[in-house]
Design a protein that fits this description.
- By secondary structure, this protein is an alpha/beta fold.
- The protein has one domain (17-31, 47-62, 72-250): TIM Barrel.
- The chain has 11 helices and 8 strands.
- Strand 3, helix 3 (92-97) and strand 4 (102-105) form a beta-alpha-beta unit.
Length: 274
């Protein structure tokens, strides 16, 4: 690929975003409590928040978010088609009908457990954008790929496959979330740590340059780049200090309102206007 130098001043500076991925956890009591406590706690925290909940939680959670400008509902996945005989799947239209505005696509657990990759994920990204949802495309390398020195080549392949044929008008229609599998505490083979500052800088500058090459600066500068991988209140400050990181994707720590709000507060400390 042709390397394009990112500007040292100006350039990438999108609004911040903190995403909670509740995964397959909780029940109606917990979902309501979390939604209530997060929305109440966000009154003085200056960042956007997405709650990516189980589909079964949409009705309960959306009732707390309908008039809250900082907190949005998100899905953990959508089908690549609008409707049809796809038992167990949910469509973008269903997500939107509950007020949802975002959806995860390509989370590492979907890649591993459901063997999702390549053209399928590209179709899901396109479907989300077509239907007016913002896809949060997740990508990252495994421990073996990292140890073999393949991090950047793997990330380039994953991002390019997902964005093939994708047209963006402003860049705000897309979020990219880097989640190195080796840093996720619940993953087999985890190193039990987040990337170092040097590792984060290498990856995120590389991804931003990919976006520059594909979309140009006016669009690339509005695509939010997130980090996901065992994000906690005590490491979010280091993560968010990277100039290319606009927010985080939070797993286990999002299941307790106090820890999630502490992370959101850390993200909000980045000098970006919501």
């Amino acid at each position: 690929m042709t390397i394009i130098s990112a500007k040292k001043e100006g350039g990438y500076m999108p609004k911040t975003l903190t995403v909670a991925n509740w995964k397959m956890n909780g029940n109606r009591k917990l979902w309501k409590e979390l939604a209530r406590e997060v929305t109440a706690g966000m009154s003085e925290i200056n960042t956007k928040v997405v709650l990516a909940t189980p589909a079964a939680a949409f009705a309960d959670v959306s009732s707390f978010l309908s008039e809250h400008s900082k907190v949005s509902l998100g899905a953990q996945d959508i089908h690549q088609q609008s409707s049809g005989a796809h038992t167990g799947d949910i469509s973008a239209e269903m997500v939107k009908d509950f007020g949802g505005k975002y959806t995860l696509v390509g989370h590492s657990e979907r890649r591993l457990e459901h063997h999702e990759k390549g053209f399928l994920l590209n179709d899901k990204v396109k479907q989300a954008i077509k239907e007016g949802l913002v896809p949060i495309f997740c990508f990252g390398e495994s421990l073996g790929q990292k140890e073999n020195g393949r991090t950047l080549s793997v990330l380039e392949e994953q991002v390019n496959e997902a964005l093939e044929g994708v047209v963006l008008k402003t860049g705000e229609e897309l979020v990219l979330a880097y989640e190195p599998v080796w840093a996720i505490s619940s993953s087999a083979g985890s190193l039990g740590r987040e990337p170092s500052e040097g590792e984060l800088s290498e990856v995120f500058e590389f991804i931003y340059k990919l976006l520059l090459e594909r979309f140009g600066e006016s669009v690339a500068s509005n695509v939010k780049l997130l980090y996901g991988g065992s994000v906690k209140a005590d490491n979010v400050a280091k993560i968010i200090s990277n100039r290319y990181i606009a927010g985080v994707l939070v797993g286990g720590a999002s299941l307790k309102a106090d820890s999630f709000l502490a992370i959101a507060r850390g993200v909000a400390s980045k000098p970006n206007e919501v």
